[in-house]
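Quick question, first post here. What does this chain look like in 3D?
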Amino acid sequence: QVQLVESGGGLVQPGGSLRLSCAASGSIFSINTLGWYRQAPGKQRELVARITSGGRTSSANSVKGRFSIFRDNAKNTVYLQMNSLKPEDTAVYYCSLEQDTYFYWGQGTQVTVSS
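> Answer (accepted):
Ran it through. Tokens below.
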């Protein structure tokens, strides 16, 4: 079994910053990809950023230059540093883990960007 526990969401003003964390526990393989997705009301879930166990990253064009993803392999934890937040970044953010043929989701954490 795998468990993903997110933290760090909340309410922030436009232009502000937040850092999300996601700790993975259970049967974690050494080769995996951790990521963040988000889902705004009435919209489909979309990829925000992913990072492999080797450190390779990819991210959505809408967050390039503002968000960065990094991980601590010793802690099986992935982080999403979000800067210059915009109202359109408001969504539920979900942590993800891909390993072998399996895909896991966290429970989600709300991020609201509003003045």
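The chain has no helices and eleven strands.
The mean pLDDT is 97.
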